[in-house]
Amino acid sequence: MTDTSESQSRVASFFEFDKHGTDAKTEVVAGITTFLTMSYIIVVNPAILSAAISIEGYSDGQVFQMLAITTILAAAVGSTVMALYANRPFGLAPGMGLNAYFAFTVVIALGIPWQTALAAVFVEGIVFIAMSSVGARRYIIEFFPEPVKFAVGAGIGLFLLLLGLIEINVAVADEATLVSLGNVASDPVALLALAGLAFTIVLYAMDVTGSIITGIVATAAAGWGLTLAGVVDGGVLTPDGLPPINYDITPLVGAFVDGFQNIEPISFLIVVLTFFFVDFFDTAGTLIGVSQFGDFLDDDGNLPEMEKPLMADAVATTFGAIVGTTTVTTYVESSTGVEEGGRTGLTALVVALLFLASLVLVPVVAAIPTYASYLGLVLVGLIMLQGVTDIQWDDAEWLIPGGLTIVMMPLTASIANGIAAGIISYPIVKAAQGEHRSIHVAQWILAGSFVLYFYVTAGGVMGG
């Protein structure tokens, strides 16, 4: 009993329970809550990345399992660093939005090898580490246009929403209108996906913890049930076959090193900058937003020692790139744990341990159909639209850059294009309003850089 008491005392002392007015039981419950609300990433992230990553000698199902494992490991490492270094109750995992940008824009649309895309994530992580270590956050915030910063989340939300609707066969390509409603009434995948989406939305509206992962699993189970009952043929609502269990991730680990060969400098730089900007402002915004729930902010509305959680994010991103996954970021779902009373790093440590424990479920994850996984994109996309309320729509210097940032992302299937459009338009609008002196010189440089980016990517320089 004495040893147990001493251990509990050391834990309480390390995480500063007395300072934050909490206890071990509260922190554990908060950690479980946070994990359940963000655990959908174990299914969704490999579903997205497997569209762009293929490895010779391995089936799609085996690659899917590899990506699920790297997703889990990156989340566990990131949350552990957050717990032990920053002592904050925030869970981390590969971020939604940037994973889709990585797969569908960088690799599939631009034709950049996935190894090179991972190299860009690695470089972004190193840059993030360097800037966090010298406290450069305030300089970045100073020259990045506010309208663009606040519009990025909503733009990514629309991007994810469109991708999700396409993958569940609700939105389809159309020669006349570019996109239209699919033959939902006669498509088993669309019908079941919509039923699953409705179920998930009901759970979310009722504030059920873990509503997204519950909806995904329930939809997948229904697909298997209908198949086994003979209602639909095998392979329609279920994978064609279950892959052999695979825990070997060596083909992914270190693959980013090969990506540094034959780099096209301008496109590589733009990809790195996009990863960095979205990661930085998504993380910073999430940290501030979640910290409001926990009363962590000082009198000026800032998070004390913010560089520490930013460093945890940067370290996790770098580690994720090394093992083969995309940018890791702090999850807004951490607010659910904070609402349960989580105040210290023990909450994040519990999240990390639960991610590690979920490694045993990797073979089960491979049995979840793609359309069920993409339900998460639809709901997460809808949730991210709430960011539009932060934009001052009655002011032209917010309306035009913010609006362009939001609409360009889904319409061109590129987060980078949205950011570029917003950054280019911002100083132009400000100058037109006669506010030349309030435009930071770095904002003109950024605008010019993104004009060059459009010339390179849209002018045929990259081979179309």
Automatic annotation (TrEMBL):
InterPro entries: Azg-like, Azg-like_bact_archaea, NCS2. GO terms for cellular component: plasma membrane. It is found in: Cell membrane. Its main location: membrane. Keywords: Cell membrane, Membrane, Transmembrane, Transmembrane helix, Transport. The keyword Membrane applies. The chain crosses the membrane at residues 28-51, 63-85, 92-112, 118-136, 148-168, 188-205, 212-232, 266-290, 310-332, 344-364, 371-388, 408-429, 441-462. GO terms for molecular function: purine nucleobase transmembrane transporter activity. The keyword Flavoprotein does not apply. PANTHER family: XANTHINE/URACIL PERMEASE C887.17-RELATED (PTHR43337), XANTHINE_URACIL PERMEASE C887.17-RELATED (PTHR43337:SF1). Belongs to the nucleobase:cation symporter-2 (NCS2) (TC 2.A.40) family. Azg-like subfamily. This is NCS2 family permease. It comes from Haloplanus rubicundus.
